[in-house]
Amino acid sequence: MSDVTKAIEEIVRAAGTMMREAFNDPRKPAYSLKGRQDYLTVTDGAVERFVRGEVERRFPGDGVLGEEDGGAVDGARLWIVDPIDGTANFARQIPHFCISLGLMVNGRLEAGAIFEPMHNELFIAERGQGAWCNGARMRVSSQTELPAASVEIGWSTREPTATYLGLIQRSMEAGCSVRRAGSGALGLAYVAAGRSEAYAEAHINAWDVAAGLLLVEEAGGRVNDFWADGGLRRGNAVLATNAALAEQIGVLTGIALK
Q: Which of this chain's residues are annotated to bind Mg(2+) (predicted)?
């Protein structure tokens, strides 16, 4: 494990402790809405400020792009953080949420981690070094049949409801089991871990996927070119699949894979 990957693990584990303590606080996390079904808690901001401080201390001069406070995206080295992916779950006392932290160097993801604090699961990857969950090597599912596949389809208020329902309908008609758990980052991690065959969403932001896309590729899966057409700044559609079903799921979702 490189010094960068060690630093990522230390940062996300410390952030996870903050999240777990807030979740377990008897007063429960208070929340507000930034928009339709767009939850915000004080813990989101606190975690992001912590991560920014750690990056500045450990890697002076590196940029940070976060969900809550934004950031410049033009530097050679950019850290991309979602302090709590799955804030609606966090706010409503559903223990399915995580922190996602990825490092992009000259436009390419090089390392990243997703930490799910309620079950103490660390998903971490470094380019060329594989993907790991709590020290065990991850590999995508070997499932080859759509009627036996499990697909998670994320929902975004930025796309028409009909687009989401169309994805669900086509997947179910092909025989897939369809789920939605409320965290795109964990959805990608679960593809890398072989727990799902695919994760798809018509629009998602860069901070949700910056670690997960690398996890899937390093675990032997396939992903779309999320970063094309301004994905870093504006978000994009996302698709991550196991290798065996990649072509079929690409056609099914209408999202082209690399």
A: 67, 82, 84-85, 208
